[in-house]
Amino acid sequence: MAYLEPAPIKDKENPLDSMMSRFDEAARKLGISEEMYYILKVPYRQVVVGLPITMDDGRIKVFEGYRVLHSNILGPSKGGIRFDPHVNIDEVKALAAWMTWKCAVVDIPYGGAKGGITCNPREMSAGELERLMRAYTIAMLDVFGPDKDIPAPDMGTGPREMAWLMDEYSKAKGMTVQAVVTGKPLVLGGSLGRTEATGRGVMVCALAGMEKLRLNPFKTTCAVQGFGNVGSHAANLLHERGVKVLAISDMTGGYYNSNGIDIQEAMRYVEKNNKSLEGYAGAEKITNEELLTLNVELLVPAAKEDVITEENASKIQAKLIVEGANGPTSANADPIINSKGILAVPDILANAGGVTVSYFEWVQNRLGYKWTQERVERRSDRIMKDAFDKVYQASVQYQVPMRIAAYIVAIDKVSQTYKFRGGY
Ligand code: GLU
Hints:
By secondary structure, this protein is α/β, with parallel strands linked by helices. Among the domains are: 43-176, Rossmann fold (3-Layer(aba) Sandwich), CATH 3.40.50; 197-350, NAD(P)-binding Rossmann-like Domain (Rossmann fold), CATH 3.40.50.720. Helices cover 44% and strands 17% of the residues. The protein has helices spanning 15-30, 34-41, 89-105, 126-139, 159-173, 194-212, 229-240, 263-272, 288-292, 334-339, 347-350, 353-367, 373-398, 402-421; strands spanning 3-4, 45-54, 60-71, 77-84, 111-118, 149-153, 221-225, 244-250, 253-256, 284-286, 298-301, 320-322, 343-345. The strands form two sheets. A seven-stranded mixed β-sheet has the order 10-9-8-7-11-12-13.
């Protein structure tokens, strides 16, 4: 008998509303026309598919999969695929639009998209996940393409899933097509530096933010929420540059040590401990909520959406927030953060290092050539620093917080490009 993955519960704070309220504010400041407003607001394609998968127990379970293509004005659409029990179409729409703004902020030639499958990867076997990813790829065969729409990893997916996608797509096309997806394993045309790329961009933005606030990295303390691909590398790279990381966390809770956490040791622990910090002995246990309001200078939310809300924003003590996650601050929390004088480096800038190195991966695949890690890092650091400076400058020019400034830079770029391209 077939059965269905239960429908996800919609969050109290809807990321689509959060995204749109910032978009509206930036669009007003920039003074774009009403026509342009709707051109930039409405995704150009939304695909929803049902995916029947034979589970290991022999039963068939039906999963829902999404791909939202928000914009292809700057180039082929780009964005990750999320495996999560809470994924729904509104979340994917918000994340797709964020990808459009993110690519525009760092000035890479892509539009924005996002994919998702409502599933719990933690409860599924590798075989079940592989069948799900391959079925999704076939369902999206006419959506994906190296010049059309290029997926990548996001929450719950990684190089392994991207390898399955590349293989299935390539089989269907009768040739190897590496550039159809980024975030692949190195041997399949992945790029050196891609794994650390998002965390590295967070570090570059954090250092640039510290410079603006005249904070010496060697005297700066930090808390990082989330110890996945983004949080762990951000923590490690910040630690390497002298910042003392007092707290880290994952789904099992927060871990605090007033003398600083040994990040390398924590990373090794997680690797051995089934990707979890549970039982990590180098620190005292706190909650994820407590982590956000610790007495530190720098806060890096690198876990999920809407963790900084109007309920807890007033208790935040950090002077600088650098958003490793997509949408960690709800729109209602923005005025509180701003009134406290906190410098918040927004997601669409701070976590754009990942898609930047995805772009480098795609470029290398198309060239049939491999760059050194040093070249990847040098070029991505420059892109991230230039983007930070551009957004900071816009925040001064328009007298707005960096978040609205980032949207202004992005909306301006996409709308200017649309004007040149023209419509019907
Ligand atoms: N999922 C990542 C993000 O949200 C990376 C997307 C990509 O590399 O295309 O930025």
